[in-house]
Amino acid sequence: MSPDVSTLDLPVSVLLALWAPLPSSRGAQVVQGADGSHLVADDVAPWGLGCLDLGSWLHDLGPLLRVGAVLVSPADPVPGLREALDVGEAVVLETAQGRRVLLVPRRRGTSVTWHVTEQDTAVAPADPTYARREVHEATEEAIDVLVSLDLARERPELAEELSDLVSAVADPRLVPPTLEPRRKALLERSLRLEAICTTALANDGAAVSATQAQRRLEALRPLLVVARRGVGAATQWWAH
Fold first, then answer.
1. What is the DSSP annotation of 37-103?
2. At what angle do helices 181-202 and 128-149 cross, to 10 degrees?
3. What is the mean pLDDT of each run of 10 residues along the chain (240 residues)?
4. Entry pTM
5. Cβ-contact 91, 19 below 8 angstroms
6. CA-to-CA distance for 17 and 25, rounded, in angstroms?
7. Is position 96 within any domain?
8. What is the DSSP string of 178-231?
9. Is 156 among the domain residues?
């Protein structure tokens, strides 16, 4: 990858959703990174209370029927995902043995403990075709909003950062080589949109007035919701 191309930040839940369906130790290595360790706290598992390393837990879980990442926020709550609101992300898993669980990552330094919550009802599946169209339109709208608000007029470094995000890509080392091109494209577009909106909303210092900051919030927050839904659609996997 060219050093001039910016890379997108892939949340740990996205990484796990992409790699969990693949029967390979490579996935656990990518999710954990070089310096981290990942444990799963699962009170319903056969070994009872306590934690197991992520790779072993996935192996013992058995065949998967469905996997998907979910990005959430208190401003955009999703039914059944209350446990994930404070961290903003989770992974939905359904197994051939009938378990339906939510994995919520809680980080401490470079290590993560995934907390398992049993789900009574399934999270509604996403429509990838609709998500592709929605994310494309939302990205165009986000760019128009930032131009119209002249967000970076007094912050040229912010303008450069936003420009880099428009063409940012996922590090190919983090994405399974078997990921379908359409899913990969949707994932990157959704993450770009999420990064653009998050970066713009985090830079209130660039606002000329409180009114402009409020206009930016009202314009970009719905687009951020679209981006999160797009990520969920891109990471959604079903057993054939």
1. -EEEE-TTSTT-SSEEEHHHHHHHH--EEEEEEEE-BTTB--TT-GGGTTTTEEEEEEETTS-EEEE
2. 30
3. 76 97 85 87 69 89 94 78 91 94 92 92 89 96 83 70 90 95 97 92 63 82 94 94
4. 0.91
5. no
6. 14
7. yes
8. TS-HHHHHHHHHHHHHHHHHHHHHH-GGG-SSHHHHHHHHHHHHHHHHHHHHHH
9. yes
Residues 6+ apart with CB under 8 A from 215: 149
How far, in Å, CA of 143 to CA of 136, rounded?
11
The domain in which residue 111 lies consists of: 12-118
The reply to whether 4 falls in a domain is no
Task: State the distance between the two ends of the chain, measured CA to CA, in whole angstroms.
Answer: 33
Give the closest residue to 106 by CA, choosing from 82, 83, 125: 83
Angle subtended at Cα 112 by Cα 125 and Cα 15, rounded to the nearest 5 degrees:
40
Q: Which residue has the tokens 């590090």?
A: 171
Inside any domain, residue 5 = no
Give the integer Cα–Cα distance in Å for 207 and 201.
Answer: 10
